Amino acid sequence: MKYQRPKGTFDILPEDSAKWQYVEKKARELFKKYRYQEMRTPIFESFEVFSRTSGETSDIVTKEMYDFYDKGDRHITLRPEGTAGVVRSFVENKLYGPEFQKPVKTYYMGPMFRYERPQAGRLREFHQIGVEAFGVDSPTLDVEVIAMAIDLLQNFGLKSLKLALNTLGDNESRTNYRQALIDYLEPYEDQLSADSKERLHKNPLRVLDSKDQADQKIVADAPSILDHLTPAAKEHFETVKSLLDALGIEYVVDPNMVRGLDYYNHTIFEIMSDSKAFGGKWTTVCAGGRYNGLVEQLGGPETPGIGFGLGVERLLLVLEAETDQLDLSDPLDVYIVSIGEKVNAEALKLVQALRHQGFSAERDYLARKPKGQFKTASRLNARYTLTLGETELEARQANLKNMATGEETSVALAAIYGDFATVLSKGE
Description:
Layout: H1 14-33, E1 37-38, E2 44-46, H2 47-54, H3 59-64, E3 67-69, E4 75-78, H4 83-92, E5 104-113, E6 125-134, H5 139-155, E7 161-167, H6 171-185, H7 194-202, H8 205-208, H9 213-219, H10 231-246, E8 252-253, E9 265-273, E10 283-290, H11 294-297, E11 305-311, H12 312-322, E12 332-338, H13 344-356, E13 361-363, H14 370-379, E14 382-388, H15 390-395, E15 397-402, E16 408-412, H16 413-427
Parallel strand pairs: 1-5, 7-8, 12-13, 12-14
Antiparallel strand pairs: 2-4, 3-4, 5-6, 6-11, 7-9, 9-10, 10-11, 14-15, 15-16
């Protein structure tokens, strides 16, 4: 039998993992500047955590969730996105308490799962990096989250970005708009796709998000939610736009953007790239929005929230296509060239001692000839080599070579074990 990875998944091999570590490291560094702290939640949750929050008519719930019943007959789901699990944890661990400073700023990284047709940048197991901030309903926080998302993408070297912005308003705005949308769509009901027919009276905003071409033509002239905002919702959105202007962040307002999850309200946004990785077509690489009410849905007190998420696989496609060179350098400090079986134990002690002193160190494990070991040291971009043969061992010495200059000198093993950094500084 030939064993293969499941369809829609892939192996991150050692030669590729450096790219992932680069992305994660850059994200962690930026989030730290904005005072966000990491939260890690389970890869699987109760089915209701996502069915209740994502919306019963969303594609995620109706088509894409990996769900099953475990041996205790509990309905379990592999997480399809990050926000709902973080909110569940926020509520369960009572992070809304008065002892926690507001906003509570968190971020997450990890795998998500959706059953959909695999394609470039969209897999059945995929990885997200996201942030969530709780406890503040100010449009200023909306703008800070958007600015942080743009900062993150620009720190990765992405230059051609477009910010699309919309609002879904407050509950009253959505109620008013919902009826206006139903009134508009009902005359076209027979022309709608099967999914949109089902959603028409359950959640008509989902029709705006349809990928069916016939549906898209119908909704092109649909009423805009911007014409149904309450004064408070309109003021929130206007403040968001004015603060983006103050930061010099350009944006376009897209009144038909609704996002794929039902928990959003007020500000929503997508950041797109026209990278050649996508054939020059504007494609979303990061998206998010405000979700006041989501904490209450999972049993917590009234607590506003906002966040964003980005897919790591899709981001890597853009990075590989758009940036000249990722900073993936991993130079080796020292390579131990060991000659003869008698020096094996000492070579092992030496390489371990260097690692304990903070140096990256490697050695030969195949008893190769010195020429082959030096070739390996060169291939690994070693800064220095330490050669240890039987003669050197008897003299308690090693031959130190600067691989850049070719300069060689004999160094006492005791000095290397004591403080190799001092040995190097004397040599320089």
